[in-house]
Amino acid sequence: MVKFTKTNPNMKVIVASLKEKSYTEDAAIWKDIAKRLEKPTRQSAEVNISDINRYTSPDEMILVPGKVLGNGSLDHKVKVAAMSFSKSAEEKIATAGGECMDILQVIEKNPKGSGIRIME
User: Fold this and answer.
1) Rounded to an integer, what distance in angstroms lies between the CA atom of residue 104 and that of residue 101?
2) What is the pTM for the complete model shown?
3) Which end is more exposed in the chain, N or C (fewer Cβ atoms within 10 Å of the end residue's Cβ)?
């Protein structure tokens, strides 16, 4: 059986960075995120703004190992890190006073991975 690997060079860099940070900081969360990102694209996470609004509290840090979509509304401030965002999702997060971040930015700001909720 042939093993397929990711061909997106950006994804390879992110996964390698996550694994390295997991090893150096002894933080299992980064290894978990790396495994989720290595899944086939069809199995990648897609989270709507309505889900973020429903399952989070104000000023919480959310990490989505996939894409954030703009369906729904957001009524509180959250920081969201993801592989990608739809334009409407970025607008709704910014309008609510939140922040859209890249996964690599989160690794640098919070190397231990404490206080992060993973949503799929």
Assistant:
1) 8
2) 0.89
3) N
